[in-house]
Every structure is written in structure tokens, then in C-alpha cells.
Amino acid sequence: MLSRARYIFGRQTAAVISEAEANFSLAKATLTYLCSGIFNEGLSAERLRDNVLRGKYRLHWFALGQWIALVKRCVESSKDRSASHELLELLLRLALERRNHNFHGEIEVKDLIFRDIAPEWPELSQYICGVLQFRRDDKQADWEYSNCKLSGARPCQLAKLPRTHV
User: What is the pLDDT of residues 51-96, one digit of tens each?
Assistant: First the structure.
């Protein structure tokens, strides 16, 4: 049985579909979507309701869950292991507009791909690695519906996590 990746990016389609171009297009689309005005904190209840009814949040879970992986694939597939100027601009915009400005904890910059993504903008690496750290820590702390308590992480650990919008 063929996996989806082998089917889509197999020998017969390699001449038609470029995996690098597909990743770049999807990364650009998810970042553009997450930077759009539909996520502005100041939206009125009426505007938010209208956005929901018009289906403007249909891409939310995909974009939220995949933007980092798609950007990472773009950086890894580039010859000099860097992000394109277009992706860097969108990443910087995302970091500036969607980060939690009230978070003042420490972020470990462990991911080598993202550590040096934009030396001239160290806050970009901090933001991306903060999201990665949050996701990693979040996976270790599961909410147990049976007793309404967190397992796997102490509350003091959770208080240190950045509450990012993305």
C-alpha cells in the first residue's frame, strides 16, 4: 500500500509537483492566514460571529498545527539552510502581531534550524523556539477529564509557558 507522501511525491508525479514548492506555498498560505485580521483581539462579538458563520476559521487548526513544520521543511530544503525573504517577513509579522506580550519567562533556543534563522532578528528565533517549547511542554501535561486535574506537569511549570496565540 502506498503512503500519501509516496503517492503524491512518487516518481510518476515528481516531474509535475515539486515538494519544495508545495511546502513553500503551504507555509506562505498558513502564515498569511494566521497574520490576517480575522484573528485580531479587538474584533467585536458581532464581527467574530459573522466570521464564524462565513467559515473564515476553517483553516485554523491546520494552519496553527502545521506552520512550524512547513517553515522548517522550507529551511531544510534550501541550499544554504535559510528561509526566503518572503517567509522571513511573514514570520516576523506573525511574531510581532501574534505573540503574547505579557510573557516574560525564559525560552530555550534548542532547535538548530530556527536558532540561526534570522541573526538580525533574534526575537524571531525566540518566538519560534518559544512556540516549539510550549508545544513540547504542552504534550507532556495532559488534562484528565475524569478528575479535572493536570497530569505530567506541576502548575509552577505551566505558569512559565508562553501563552502564544499561534
Answer: 999 999 999 999 988 998 899 888 888 766 566 888 888 988 888 8
Q: Are 87 and 27 in contact (CB under 8 A)?
A: yes
* Residue 122 lies inside a defined structural domain of this protein: yes
For residue 117, give its domain range: 4-159
Q: How far is CA 144 from the centre of its chain?
A: 25
Q: What percent of the chain has pLDDT over 70?
A: 67
Residue 94, in any domain of the structure: yes
Number of domains forming the structure of the chain: 1
165 inside domain: no
Question: Is 166 domain-assigned?
Answer: no
C-alpha cell at 22: 508545495
Q: How far apart are CA 113 and CA 122, in angstroms?
A: 13
Looking at residue 54, its pLDDT comes to 94
Helices 60-77 and 122-140 pack at an angle, to 10 degrees, of 120
Bridge-partner residues for 143, per DSSP?
Answer: 150
pLDDT at position 15:
64
Please return the burial class of 42, using the count of CB atoms within 10 Å of its CB with bins 0-12, 13-18 and 19+.
Answer: exposed
